[in-house]
Amino acid sequence: MATDPFQRRAASPSAPVPDLGTGTAANAATGIADGLHGRCTAQMIPEPSAKSRVSRQDWLDAALRRFIRDGVDSVKVLSLSDELGVSRSSFYWHFKSRPDLLEALLDAWKAKNTAGLIAQAEAPAATITEAVCSIFRCVFDTRLFDTALDFAVRDWARRAPEVRAALAASDAQRLAALSAMYARHGYGADEAETRARV
To answer: Considering only CA atoms, which of 140, 105, 136 is closest in space to residue 123?
Structure first.
């Protein structure tokens, strides 16, 4: 069977511990060897959850981490392939080009932050206080909303017209959802929008 060029290199198995016989000294030596064997193996073998094949999501997750940490200019195929431990050709199984990756990155932001905030605004709430607390959960729970990602996209939008347009559309959707939330709890249209903007 042909070798998959995108398989990660597996760590070489450790050499077996030699038979040292029996007796106190032998048992002690074997115990020391077993301890060393365990430590070396833990360092050499990937985590059980590590994938032998890098997926599209792996590439996207690596791009998001780098984007949030260092900005869009740091999202380069070569640096990502080094981080993931695979060849650059693996990238092109999942993305047509770097712009394609950046578009997927922007889509991930929309799916998480824009959709996440709207979902919280639309969540059932008995009172406006409960509704606002639901929105505030976005600040503290990155599973609902990633504040660092939002800042990174806003910085990117300053230099990229297409991202600026996507950001404007997202902000309009968020504002509409928040205004509707206040309106459901008895606020007039003008006051609901004013509070939503805050």
So the answer is: 136
